[in-house]
Write a structure and sequence with these properties.
transferase, Glycerol-3-phosphate (1)-acyltransferase, 7 helices, seven-stranded mixed beta sheet, alpha/beta, acyltransferase, 204 residues, 1-acylglycerol-3-phosphate O-acyltransferase, single chain
């Protein structure tokens, strides 16, 4: 209920700050729930992706430190966020999203690289996709990379790719992880070139 209440408010705030969010190839999103996977470029990407893929509701990971503030904890929990200890992740990092995806009501937003300043892909998204039997949907954000750019009303672009399915029988060996890492990177590169060939991400 809170998620559906807050979403139009957030959409209005984005519109006031920047203007309309431009969404491309939403028709590529499969039926049912899924896992949105993206290269991490800004802290507001989860918001843009959640708005772009509306009316689907999303779970997402948030660093455990954010849950120490009682007000922020209330907002995050009711927005379907769950805490992750980056230093000591633990099994809940997989169990919580897999359970949520299997229930079928929520999708998941995840950044396989983990941080905005890393190009190294983690295997978590692949394992979650395998265990939940849900497809990975590549998505990219192109637009301002600083809050100042956001306020200058530079265009916000979200582009969805075709779903990627992982066979449950696939073993998560280093070889297979590398294979899917390459598939994901190629999918993101394809979307970037498709949306704007001149776009180049530079970590801020």
């Amino acid at each position: 209920m809170f998620y559906r209440f807050i979403r139009p408010i957030v959409r209005f705030i984005v519109w006031v700050l920047n203007g309309h969010l431009h969404v491309h190839h939403k028709d590529r999103i499969p039926e049912g729930n899924y896992i949105l996977v993206a290269p991490h470029r800004t802290w507001w990407e989860p918001i843009m992706f959640a708005l772009a893929a509306s009316p689907m509701e999303f779970m997402f990971m948030a660093k455990i430190e954010l849950f120490k503030n009682p007000v922020l904890r209330f907002i995050l929990k009711h927005a379907h966020a769950f805490p992750v200890d980056r230093e000591h992740p633990g099994p809940s990092v997989l169990k919580i999203p897999v359970k949520g995806l299997k229930e079928g009501k929520l999708s998941l937003i995840i950044f396989p690289s983990g941080t905005r300043h890393s190009a190294e892909l983690k295997s978590g998204a692949l394992v979650i996709a395998k265990l939940s039997k849900k497809p990975l949907v590549p998505v990219v954000y192109q637009g301002p990379l600083t809050f100042k750019g956001l306020l200058k009303r530079q265009p916000l672009e979200v582009c969805f790719g075709d779903p990627i399915y992982i066979d449950r029988k696939t073993k998560m060996t280093h070889e297979n992880e590398a294979k899917y890492d390459q598939i994901l990177n190629e999918a993101w590169n394809k979307l970037d070139k498709e949306q704007n060939p001149d776009f180049h991400y530079v970590a801020k």
